[in-house]
Amino acid sequence: MPPATEDQRSKPTQTITHEAIDTLFDFEPEQLLRPPAAIEMFVRRIVRGAKYYVGPEQRTEPRYAVSLAVAAVPVDQSLKKAGDVFIAFTRDISSSGMAMYHTRRVSEKYLAVEIKSACGEKMRVLVEVLRCYPSGLFYEIAGKFVSRLAD
Q1: What DSSP assignment string belongs to 86-136?
Q2: Is the N end or the C end of the chain the one with fewer CB atoms within 10 Å?
Q3: Looking at residue 111, what is its pLDDT?
Q4: What span, in angstroms and rounded, lies between the C-alpha atoms of 118 and 62?
Q5: pLDDT 10s digits, 86-109
Q6: What is the Cα–Cα distance from 40 to 87, expressed in whole angstroms?
Q7: Is the pLDDT score of 31 beyond 50?
Q8: Distance in angstroms (rounded) separating the CA atoms of residues 141 and 126
């Protein structure tokens, strides 16, 4: 059998139980320290701007500019918690991924993210972090949706 390629080694484990997912999201978002108001205002200014993205479009689906507070849990390839839960603000979301801002750099390759709509509907997804770089005082984190996590 040939050795595993980098892509094969870096994919997360696909089997995860409902109990394991519940453990990842076992926190009260209201009890988490919210990022400074400046980050929310920064994102809202970007979202209001008509041309917030410059460069060739890499997504096959349209991006929707939206600013939502989302809870993110850094996880490892086994989908086990690998860092502290944090709140970030989205810049845009498409059907294949999202971009968000946070006050610190993210070094983990995956984030388990809980997105809640204004009407209370929620979705939990696994995001593969494709980039994380400084943007002003904050960090822009962008990634693609790997899978939906059962809620």
Answers
A1: EEEEEEEE-SSEEEEEESS---SSEEEEEEE-TTS-EEEEEEEEEEEEEET
A2: N
A3: 96
A4: 21
A5: 999 898 999 899 999 999 999 999
A6: 11
A7: yes
A8: 14
Those residues whose C-beta lies under 8 Å from the C-beta of residue 142, and which sit 6 or more positions away, are 97, 98, 99, 100, 129, 130, 131, 132
> Residue for token digits 């400046």?
38
At 60, list the tokens.
């096959």
Residue whose structure tokens are 């390839």: 77
- Residue-wise pLDDT for 42-72, tens only, equals 666 666 664 545 666 666 778 888 888 899 9
Q: Which tokens go with 96?
A: 């294949």
What is the rounded distance in angstroms from the CA atom of residue 33 to the CA atom of residue 17?
Answer: 28
Supply the DSSP string of 14-76, one letter for each residue: S---HHHHHHHT-S-GGGSPPPPHHHHHHHHHHHHSS----S----SS--EE---EEEEEEE-
59-63, 83-87, 118-122, 128-132: the lowest-pLDDT one? 59-63
Here the tokens at position 17 are 């139980």
* DSSP structure class, residue 81: B
